[in-house]
Specification:
alpha/beta, Rossmann fold, two-stranded antiparallel ribbon, 16 helices
Length: about 450
């Protein structure tokens, strides 16, 4: 966090926390709930926020001006802290929320079939199978697990996680009725929230890391949809195809892939630098259900009732999941010029310190721009609302092309070094062929996803 703090004149203190993962953080079943807690990893985070309230003043911090932030699962965790205890905590633990590509996986009830099966599979791998307690009333699976070694539990956690469907995880947050009371999509709709201001966004190509890269026909796509959304009926899948149309039945492996501009021409429905046709169709479906639409729902949730939200998209090519991290935490990659890093770091810094991500024109345009003082929409960043669903598109233009294989790309793609900042204002609802409409659809079927 040093580069981020230094770039913002050391105006705030950064606290980095840790929390339990895998089965240690997210083991869930009726037996776990009765004997301990589910969502232990999320509760670890909550405890850390309570610690900050108690002690940050000793480091020169202000407990009334805390911003929580994260990326991917960290951003999803931030979302769950926003929703904690039904949104009844107000600003008692934090004032602001920064959520970069918030990950919202399938969220089941704590004793539903899926988490319970993961519990039994974990217990079996750890040497505590369901038959363990039969004929021995003084014992239980839970007690057997408590007595097992950490190494055995680590191995069991790995076995379960590695056996799932590609793009899914074995142990995830669950609806427990206490800390996490509802599906996030529904609670966000009701605007039952903690905190006051939100900065939220997504990357241009969130999906390829989590989607099998062998989807070439619509039959492949249908098979993937049925595997990914097991609760969907044929009618539900037909609706997905309606909202995600495609004009080609297969992919030309020799076709040149390219980045879309989000406004005109081909859209993310069928085209990106990573893929096209049915493959891109699947990549975009996963991206929007798991990362992009949750960021839209969060922006809508914080759009009134004395709150304010600010949206962005990170579009610097290639823009796959996680490639934005170095832009605001450093060290930057060759396709992230120093001007762009400074702009993104000050966007985040101003939000933390001033509750508003707006930055000066010279920073937004960058020192290498032909006219650094030219008007730029990031100098007066408009809050997001259903009436005016605007977002800032964080991109670069020009530069020297080079070939690289960045995170999430199945092959080398063209990127650009020494580019200049290209920060624009766009309509997030109509963006990429009507992304807002598709997010409304996913919320309408959220109970079947579930998310």
């Amino acid at each position: 966090m040093t580069s981020l703090v230094n770039t913002n004149n050391n105006d705030f203190i950064a606290v980095v926390i840790q929390y339990r993962l895998g089965a240690f953080g997210f083991l869930s079943s009726d037996e776990v709930f009765r004997n301990g807690v589910v969502n232990a990893g999320i509760l670890d985070q909550h405890f850390a926020l309570q610690w900050v309230q108690s002690y940050i003043s000793m480091f020169g911090g202000n407990a009334s001006q805390v911003t929580i932030g994260g990326e991917s699962a960290g951003a999803g965790s931030v979302m769950l802290q926003d929703l904690a205890y039904g949104g009844t905590q107000g600003t008692s633990l934090f004032r602001n929320t920064f959520s970069a590509s918030p990950y919202l996986p399938m969220q089941y009830g704590y004793k539903d079939f899926v988490p319970s099966q993961s519990y039994y599979a974990f217990a079996t791998a750890a040497g505590c199978p369901p038959t363990y307690a039969y004929g021995n009333s003084s014992q239980s699976i839970f007690r057997c697990l408590v007595a097992a070694s950490s190494q055995k539990l680590q191995n069991a956690s790995f076995v379960v996680s590695a056996s799932g469907v590609f793009g899914t995880w074995g142990f995830l947050p669950v609806t427990d009725g206490v800390f996490i009371q509802q599906l996030p999509s529904q609670q966000l709709l009701q605007k039952q929230l903690n905190g006051q201001h939100l900065l939220v966004g997504n990357d241009a190509n969130e999906g390829p890391l989590f989607t099998p890269q062998n989807i070439t026909t619509e039959a492949d796509l249908l098979a993937w949809l049925r595997l990914t959304f097991p609760l969907f009926t044929n009618d539900d899948i037909a609706k997905v195809l309606l909202y995600y149309p495609s004009t080609n039945a297969s992919v030309d492996p020799m076709a040149l892939d390219f980045a879309t501009n989000g406004i005109s021409g081909p859209t993310a429905l069928n085209e990106s630098q990573v893929g096209s046709g049915q493959q891109q169709r699947a990549d975009n479906i996963y991206a929007e259900t798991s990362f992009v639409c949750p960021s839209y729902w969060m922006a809508e949730a914080y759009s009134d009732r004395g709150r304010a939200s600010y949206r962005y998209q990170y579009s610097v090519p290639l823009g796959t999941h996680g490639t934005d991290l170095t832009a605001y935490f450093g060290p930057v990659l060759p396709n992230q010029p120093a001007d762009f890093e400074r702009a993104f770091m000050q966007i985040l810094g101003n939000f933390i310190v001033r509750d508003n991500p707006s930055i000066s024109a010279d920073v937004a345009n960058g020192a290498r721009a032909s006219n650094p003082s030219a008007p730029n929409p990031a100098t007066n960043w408009p809050p997001y609302s259903n009436f005016a669903p605007y977002q800032i598109n964080l991109n670069t233009t020009g530069g020297t092309p080079y070939q690289a294989q960045p995170l999430g790309a199945p092959f080398n793609v063209t990127q650009y070094a020494n580019a200049t900042n290209d920060i624009t204002l766009v309509n997030a609802y109509t963006w990429e062929g009507g992304r807002g409409y598709r997010c409304d659809f996913w919320r309408s079927v959220a109970a079947l996803v579930p998310e």
